[in-house]
Design goal:
With 223 residues, the protein is mainly alpha-helical. It folds into 2 domains: 1-68 and 206-223, no CATH class; 77-204, no CATH class. It has helices at 9-22, 27-44, 48-52, 55-60, 77-97, 108-135, 140-171, 183-204, and strands at residues 102-105, 179-182. A two-stranded antiparallel sheet has the order 1-2.
């Protein structure tokens, strides 16, 4: 539903949610703020930017409240669960490729884990910076352009991480074998690690709670 200046209510609320997330506003508060904005605009037909201001400016008044679980400090919940999921997926893939064989677990696992941690720490912060720039004001063309750029950057960074991991593994001296496991057990271990990472993210991520009888639709991934 566009306002007087063509501002879509959906675009505005999505940008506002991202800005509130970046300011560590609890999910319950975000639900209340967005519900008030949506109700007012639907009742009056006014442009949300004219009434509430740009998303970056309007969200500033709600900052400084209690930080939700998993979002305080330098290390976030995403920084922990994403490497866990990637390591679990890699272990599971290795097991699938060696189902009928025995696989040696060496110190190379540590190097892969370190690379995925570095990837999470770097790329998540780049995503945050891009999300902040593209949602402070409602500028559809610039926002879409930056979103495409960020997607390509994530893909290239992940590809570079895998390539670097392969290079490091190929150049490492023969490391001592910690344990030899059948391929099927690696599939099971990888599945458990990936499942635990997903469960932990769902359990401790701060969900948006809409006070109305229905729930917010189209919530972006910037939690």
């Amino acid at each position: 539903m566009p306002g007087q200046h063509g501002t879509s209510l959906k675009d505005y609320t999505q940008a506002l949610i991202i800005q509130l997330r970046l300011r560590d506003v609890p999910g319950r508060t975000i639900g209340q703020v967005v519900a008030e904005v949506e109700s007012h605009v639907r009742e009056t037909g006014e442009d949300p930017v004219e009434v509430f201001g740009q998303p970056g400016s309007y969200s500033a008044q709600f900052a400084g409240r209690r930080r939700p679980v998993g979002r305080g400090g330098w290390l976030t919940l995403d920084d922990v669960t994403f490497p866990m999921f990637m390591i679990g997926a890699l272990v599971m893939l290795n097991g699938v490729l060696n189902l009928g064989e025995s696989v040696d677990v060496t110190a190379g696992v540590v190097s892969w884990a370190a690379l995925f941690v570095i990837y999470a720490l770097v790329v998540v912060r780049i995503d945050i910076a891009v999300a902040d720039r593209e949602t402070r004001t409602i500028t559809t063309a610039r926002r879409a352009h930056r979103r495409r750029a960020a997607s390509w950057l994530r893909f290239l960074a992940l590809f570079a991480t895998f390539t670097l991991g392969r290079v490091i593994s190929s150049r490492l001296p023969h490391a001592p074998v910690f344990v030899s496991l059948p391929g099927w057990s690696l599939v099971l271990v990888g599945l458990v690690v990936a499942a635990v990472s997903i469960w932990a993210y769902q359990r401790w991520s701060d969900q948006i709670v809409d006070p109305r009888p229905w729930h917010l639709k189209g919530r972006p991934k910037w939690r």
